[in-house]
Amino acid sequence: MDIIIRNGMIYERGEVMDLGIMDGKIVHLASHIKEKAREEIYATGCIVAPGFVDPHVHMDKCLTMDRARNEGEVRTLADMIRVQRRMKKAFTVEDVKARAIAVARMAVANGTTSTRTYVEADPIVEYRAVEGVLAAKEACRAILDIQTIAFPQEGWLANADDWELESKPFVIHAMELGLDAVGGNVNRAVWDSDPEKQVDDLFECARKHDADIAMHLDNAYNAVAFTLPYVAKKAMECGYQGRVSVDHIVSLALVPDRVAHQAIDLVREARLNVCVLPTVIRLTRVAELMEAGVNVMLGTDNLRDGFTHIGHGDADMLKSMLLLSQVLNFGFEDEMERVFQAGTYNAAKGMRIAEGYGIAEGNRADIVVLEAASINDAISRIARRRAVVKGGRLVAQNGTLQA
Fold first, then answer.
1. pLDDT band (50, 70, 90) for residue 100
2. Which of 334, 350, 366 is the C-terminal boundary of a domain?
């Protein structure tokens, strides 16, 4: 065998077992595997879990916070947009590629084996971010699976004062350049353009390319930005159940309970995936969505850029899990399991990579070994990642990248 992980607590089974890996797959689970392997990982006292899946990052603008410090005070969303626009003008393909590779390597060292990144395409950065992230995706193929989303950070249609820029044609062309999913930035409280029109355009583009949709939706601390029910109905109308992710949806927390509960029913019926980002702090109705059976995912979001309000900045999903549990006041084992699922199985389902994911014979060997006695313990202590296996290769040990 290529690798044997010995004497670890298998997350899905709750049993201490050996795990054998060959040709990128999990080929054997047993109380003891007699044969030897090229590499052996001793996991006594550890949990052996599937690799983390991060469905919401921004690799193209990561690691630029130091540049933002030269732009003056950054406190409001308007400040952040203004500062980021000025910085983006200086982005080059090589600059984006180098920073994206750097954050990919951080993520892998912290146990992430698959991720999905928004990639901006607009009149300011044009296609430099697209080209840079695609190059980074190829460079990191052996250690991390990266899905890409064409993202209109600067708005959808141009308005008179240039606050909203016409990113629509750039997003459409970015899909032709090879990005994986169509992204939206739907927020009635920020942009002048009709949010329903943007949603219609996103579905048209997605259907043309047979691509999934992932959008920043209703990310405003008010009830004005509330397009969620329209998105759910559109997904069902287009036969896109299970293929649409709505991230943030903060305004759901600010509409009346009756309206919110009706919307949650629609979200469940449309099988929308909801991604929550706890570094923003003001969250949507996370617990209610979980209770309703909605597929709730967890992401790390921005990483040391002009949009970072608060954040650890090292692409560590366990830290995001801890922050989410703290904000939700979760602490019991079943509650912490829900949080853990949001960054593993739920995220894999939302990114449509659930087939072959998980610790079972025949599945791909994407694995993280956590030095913890339980999931609660792993999240609460930000457990050390003793080993990370990607596609059957040992890619990180004790927080250090091997590849």
1. very high
2. 350
